[in-house]
From TrEMBL:
Transmembrane regions listed in the UniProt entry: 40-62, 82-103, 115-138
Entry keyword set: Membrane, Transmembrane, Transmembrane helix
Name of the protein in its database record: Uncharacterized protein
Length: 300
């Protein structure tokens, strides 16, 4: 029979080993407030991560809602290319990074081990989405996109991206502001126009409809789809469609304080009639891609 009392005398207990190691390594207990402080810090970092995720989500919403989905048939060769170019990659990356940071900090809290990873991610995502929608509704999506985006070299803000797309007259795309009608210009239906890059154009409006002229009169910044024409040293653009600049939740798309006076067609715009009959219209706009879907854009 084994003598248990002898065995306990010959071999130190587990508790004795722990005490001996504590004495050897001179380990001293930390104050309780340090553990509580660390716990609070981890929770604060999680809250901060959710807030940064919300900023990223609000900026992503602003980017996606103002990607120009209704114009993709005019601005891109295919929907796939438009989709790839429109995704807010930087903001989605920021959202994922801070969701991961939040996850790691929650797991280091006192009771964090009790929560599963899917549950923590779910709470983090829901928190970022709810707070992000709140920020977007109050118009802060554009603010974050510009303030933060302008400081990242490889990131174009929504406004910069849209301006880059719509400053390609060789592709039939132009954006800027109409000036007063000048009866001395040729053709007789031409307007002075200042593009977003500051260049001056003459816009031939002979093929426009009443809705197009209403947009010209009402909005200080518009998009034009048409055909660039060579006329010596004059920059001439034959307009087929005119739409508002149309950035949602943005201060960019402001209406004119005073509508532009369109003297030669004012009565027709007021009554909603067509400026020119189909027989009087040129065939230049019929060559635009795809004409039927472009006609629907006047409703936006």
């Amino acid at each position: 029979m084994i003598n248990n009392s002898k065995q306990s005398n010959d071999f130190p207990s587990f508790a004795d080993k722990i005490l001996e190691r504590l004495e050897t390594e001179k380990v001293t207990p930390n104050a309780k407030w340090k553990y509580s402080g660390k716990n609070v810090l981890f929770w604060l970092i999680w809250v901060f991560s959710v807030q940064i995720g919300a900023i990223a989500f609000a900026s992503s919403l602003f980017t996606l809602f103002n990607a120009g989905w209704q114009y993709y048939s005019a601005t891109h060769d295919s929907f796939f290319r438009f989709f790839i170019e429109s995704m807010p990659y930087m903001w989605l990356l920021v959202l994922c990074i801070f969701l991961y940071i939040g996850l790691e900090n929650i797991r280091h809290t006192t009771k964090g081990y009790r929560y599963s990873i899917p549950f923590i991610l779910f709470c983090s995502v829901i928190g970022s989405l709810i707070f992000g929608v709140f920020l977007y509704v109050f118009g802060l999506g554009q603010l974050f996109d510009e303030v933060i985006g302008n400081r990242v070299p490889f990131h174009d803000t929504v406004v910069e991206h849209q301006e880059a797309i719509w400053l390609h007259p060789e592709n039939g795309l132009l954006a800027g502001a109409f000036n007063e009608f000048n009866s001395e210009l040729e053709p007789a239906s031409a307007y002075n126009f200042v593009a977003l890059d500051g260049k001056n154009w003459q816009i031939d409006t002979s093929d426009l409809r009443a809705q197009d002229f209403e947009n010209i009169a009402e909005f200080s910044r518009v998009r034009i789809i048409g055909v660039a024409e060579a006329d010596g040293g004059t920059k001439l653009f034959h307009a087929c469609f005119v739409m508002p600049w149309g950035l949602k939740m943005s201060e960019v798309n402001v209406k004119r304080a005073k509508p532009l006076v369109l003297e030669h067609i004012e009565d027709c715009v007021t009554s909603g009639c067509e400026i020119n009959s189909d027989e009087m219209r040129s065939s230049k706009c019929k060559d635009l891609r795809p004409y039927s879907s472009l006609q629907k854009m006047r409703n936006y």
